[in-house]
Amino acid sequence: MEHKLESVHYSVLYREILFYFQEAFSPESEFLFLDGTAGEGGHSLLLLRNFPNSKLILLDRDATMLKRAESRLAEFSDRILSVEANFSEVDSDFLRKIGADRNPDGILLDLGISTFHLLHAGRGFSFREDEPLDMRLSSGGGISAEDVINTYPEKILSKIFYEYGEERWTKKIVEAILERRRHGRIAYTGELAQLVSRVIPRKFWPPGRHPATRVFQALRIEVNQELMHIEFGIGKLLEVLAEGGRFQVISFHSLEDRIVKNQFRDYARSHSAKLVTKKPILPTEEEVRENAASRSAKLRVIDKLSASDIRKEENGDEEE
């Protein structure tokens, strides 16, 4: 998500992201960054401007978003290696195949969905417009949200809405979906949003949010297998992060944050890494006023220790 570089777009927690990278790396030196969720390129733009001698690997699983980011970052094209891929694909072989000459020193993941997807993608991520129930982030096919809604059995639909959406009205919503699909497929976002709205009594609608928000979130997570990619991908990225490197992750709901927290904690316990943030960093009141979409963001940061750092840790910060 983008920050106010061009007055319209926002990058969530951009001040904090820059602070933690500048704390770890000298702007004058040469480093390799990896932005595993390019979005519209806001965070990458921040890094390329503030680390003028460094290079960046730009990844996104969505070809449309990657092209938008490339266009925005065109002035830095000689310092960018752009690849259409999911961050969960990154390992040593991947880096070698794309021509990276070193492991990344700084890695950033922003796990939020972009404003472009919500407002302009036309793939049914939002209920603002009546769009086909698609929700696929990548162009490689796979199951759509329409397939999930119309073909998944009751138990699996209930599991998705309750676990991924943390939706307390799951039972009644699933009953309504099963009844509706006896008469034909549910194919558009407007129809699904109205169905959920009718099921949940108005007095229980969440303040400031559409009552179908949790259901749409759960569908998007299922369609794109987001939690699986986060769990699998963070472990792989921790392995390829260079010694002395720093890894930052922004999550937007408790399921994502729990995975990040546990993966970072377990890796730090192996004595090869150190938690920079013991608790997640939250957006300031100022940022929430600037960009309401940032209100649920959480940032966690971890350092991969070098051999000398490990020795210092083992010896109570004293040199051998």
Automatic annotation (TrEMBL):
Keywords, comma-separated and alphabetical:
Cytoplasm, Methyltransferase, rRNA processing, S-adenosyl-L-methionine, Transferase
Gene3D superfamilies found in the cross-reference section: Putative methyltransferase TM0872, insert domain, Vaccinia Virus protein VP39
> What are the annotated GO cellular component locations?
cytoplasm
Q: What reactions does this protein catalyze?
A: cytidine(1402) in 16S rRNA + S-adenosyl-L-methionine = N(4)-methylcytidine(1402) in 16S rRNA + S-adenosyl-L-homocysteine + H(+)
Enzyme's top EC category: transferase
Record has Nuclease as a keyword: no
Q: Where are the transmembrane segments?
A: none
Per the UniProt entry, the Enzyme Commission number(s) are 2.1.1.199
Q: A Pfam family this protein belongs to?
A: Methyltransf_5
What GO molecular functions are on record for this protein? rRNA (cytosine-N4-)-methyltransferase activity
The UniProt entry lists the main location of this chain as cytoplasm
**Domain of life here?**
Bacteria
InterPro entries in the cross-refs: RsmH, SAM-dep_MeTrfase_MraW_recog, SAM-dependent_MTases_sf
- Which GO BP terms apply? rRNA base methylation
Q: Write down the NCBIfam families for this protein, in alphabetical order.
A: 16S rRNA (cytosine(1402)-N(4))-methyltransferase RsmH
What function does the entry list?
A: Specifically methylates the N4 position of cytidine in position 1402 (C1402) of 16S rRNA.
This chain belongs to the protein called Ribosomal RNA small subunit methyltransferase H
Q: Which organism is it from?
A: Leptospira fletcheri
